[in-house]
Amino acid sequence: MSTREPPEPSGVDSPISDPVSFASLPLPSLLLAGIAGSPGYALGPTWVVDVERAGVVHRAISRQLIPDEIERFARAVEQTAADLREVVATSRVGRAEISILEAYILMVCDPTLKEKVQSRIRSERKCAEWSLDIEIRELSLALRGSENTYLAERSRDIEFVGQRILRVLTGKAAGISLPEGPTPYILVAHDLSPAETSGLTKGRVLAIVTEVGTRTSHTAILARALDIPAVVGVGEILSKINPGEFALVDGSRGVVALRPTEQAIATAKLRDERYQAVASGLWRRRSQPATTACGVAVQLNANIELPTEAPLALEKGAQGIGLYRTEFLYLDRPDLPSEDEQYQTYARVLETMAPLTVTLRTFDIGGDKLASAFALPSTLNPALGLRAVRLGLERPELFLTQLRAMVRASAHGRARILLPMITATQEFRRVRLLLDQAIREVDDAGQPRAVSIPLGMMVEVPSAAILAHVFAREAEFLSIGTNDLVQYTLAVDRGNRELAKLASFFDPAVLQLIAGVVHAGEKWSRGVAVCGTMASDPLAAILLLGMGLRELSMEASAIATVKETVSRVSIAEAVAAWERCAMLGDAQAVEAELAMLFAPRISDLLGRDFE
Ligand code: PEP
Ligand code: MG
Question: Which residues, at least 6 apart from 344, have a Cβ–Cβ distance to it below 8 Å?
Answer without folding.
Answer: none
